[in-house]
Amino acid sequence: MKRSDTVLLKFGVMTDNHLADSFPQNFLRTESVFALFKQHDVDAVVNCGDITNRYQLEMLELHNEIFKKVFSGDDKPEKLWIAAGHDVAGAEDKCSAYDEVAEILDSGGLNFVKEINVFVFIGISQEQPWHILEDMLQKHYKNDTRPLFVITHEPPFDTVLKSEYSFFKELRNILNKYPQVVSISGHTHSPVFLDRNIWQGEFTAVNAGSLFYWKDAPVGAASRRLDSCDAMIFEIYDGKIVIRRFNMLSNEEIAPENPWILPLPFDRENAPFVPEVRAERFPVPEFVSGEGFEIVFDGEPFSMAYCRIPEILAVESFNNLRFELYEEQNGGMVNISVFDFCNDYRSDSDKSCVEIPVGLLKGNLNYHIKVTPFNLYGKAGKSFELDFRTPASALQELPFDGFEGILKEDGNIYQTEEFATSHDMEVIHIVLKNDLQKFKNENIFTVIEIASEHADTPAILMAHGDAPDYGRHYLLKGKTAVMRHSFDLKYISGERLSVFLGEGTPGKYKIHDVKYYKIITQPLTERTKK
Fold first, then answer.
1. pTM above 0.70?
2. Using CA atoms, how far apart are residues 279 and 326, in angstroms rounded to an integer?
3. Looking at the predicted structure, is the pLDDT value of residue 352 above 70?
């Protein structure tokens, strides 16, 4: 047998088990993954953290017991397990909690260096000082033809899906210096069948998905499978790494005929997963036709509107739908909302429809909507557009409007309407009217209009805990641009609406208007008779 056909090392990768009594399926999934790794006779098992959902040491013990149950013999694979934020969430003393978690995991401490079959692994638990990783890399990185594997919970900045947040930058800056590094991470909970979960640039980054999918994750990737339950097996050969991906809901390998293959040693010029190289040959999703594209209402008067979407081709490349909504104002059409719908669109269903966020549409007005499919690399397919008119509205405006102010980092509430953003994602706390307490048992929502002034790339806005998940709302540029957003208040606590805002060109923003509504609770059958 040729050396290139001999597996030099094989290891399994899992992450984000989130073990808790309230999620019994996660215990079964964990056991299934260990069984898969045993079946493939792995030399080691990587876990990128968030093994528990909260700080519960008994959950870590159960994790260990499942491991020992599956690997019942003496020849157990090496453990490459790190701790992450959920493993210590709720602990009074996080430093001590991290130490306790590391002791139970028994994987070499919070941070470790291990050599297995001449390949070096560095693991660094979440919230550890990054200079620890820098020191370990300086000592153990050889810059030869062999990869060095770095295990972290969070991904390096601007590499794999959902790694665009500024607090990942320091990790990226460190790894940029080490081209033969293969970064392995978790945290994002995005399905591993998606092409954007592998990246090559200054080094290589791979995200391992998760065993538990957050239904209210801010921005994910649309897929026909809404539940992320994944694992990976890395096979290291002389001259290449083969990464096999597995869906643990079906216990089947994902695209077995097309595993991710990384040539060794890493050379950016010949690397297959450099984004600009991948994007050139990646398919663009397209609507099959305009047939079936329509706006439907739940009755007259209406409280909900839905956009029915035609079938999409090249569905595996599909990432999101972008909706641009225009409203007739003073005889012309004005853009009032742009939002990406990401997580819940089922492109393989005969009932494909997207809910238009409540409150964006007023009654008895003319509207225009434009819907565009995008692929994983941001390339757009052909748009479809439609004019429609709303019936009378079943929404009842509550007898107050406005807001109390903006809560700043110093803990004070300022009665200002204006704020600014930087390039980085930040959180803006809008303190809503105290009068909301009168309606705390009713299903109410707020409609916020924000005026923006910036030069180039639009900033985005997402409500913390907003549901259903519409993904990103884009703030328009221009001094006169006013964007309308609608947020369901049953998904927030207290009187504070926390929104994630930023990532675009730095700009100035002003809260133009805030109003509150509730849906008239008239039975649908009665409303439709009128």
1. yes
2. 31
3. no
Token duo for residue 149: 């594997």
Question: Where in the chain are the domains?
Answer: 3-281, 286-393, 397-519
Structure tokens at 203: 């080094």
109: left (phi over 0), alpha (psi -120 to 50) or beta: left
Domain boundaries 286-393, CATH class: mainly beta
Return the residue matching tokens 């081709």: 313
Non-local (6+) Cβ contacts of 98 within 8 A are 83, 87, 88, 110, 125, 127
CA distance 105 to 95: 16
Residue 310: CB atoms within 10 A of its CB come to: 19
**Section 215-223 average pLDDT:** 36
- Structure-block tokens of residue 52: 């528990």
**On the CB side of 411, how many CA atoms lie within 13 Å of its CA?**
0
Given a cut of 50, whether residue 345 has pLDDT beyond it is no
Between 448 and 245, residue with greater pLDDT:
245
Q: Each residue of 137-170: b (16+ CB within 10 Å) or e?
A: beeebeeeeebbbbbbbbbbbbbbbbbebeebeb
Helix (H) or strand (E) holding 430: strand 426-431
Mean pLDDT to the nearest integer, 385-401: 88
468: cis peptide before it, omega within 30°?
yes
Residue-wise pLDDT for 447-468, tens only, equals 878 777 766 666 666 554 433 3
H helix or E strand, kind and range, residue 341: strand 332-341
Instruction: Determine contact, residues 390/297, Cβ cutoff 8 Å.
Output: yes
Q: What is the CATH number that goes with domain 397-519?
A: 2.60.120
Helix (H, G, I), strand (E, B), or coil: what is residue 259? coil
Check pLDDT > 50 for residue 21. yes
Q: Is the peptide bond before 265 cis (omega within 30 degrees of 0)?
A: yes
Mean pLDDT score, 363-377: 92
Q: What are the tokens at 183?
A: 């970064």
Residue 51, CA distances (Å) to 22, 153, 229, 247, 370 in order: 14, 11, 14, 18, 42
Give the closest residue to 472 by CA, choosing from 305, 360, 306, 338.
338
Closest CA to 457 of 360, 378, 375: 378
CATH of domain 3-281: 3.60.21.10
Cβ-contact 211, 36 below 8 angstroms: no
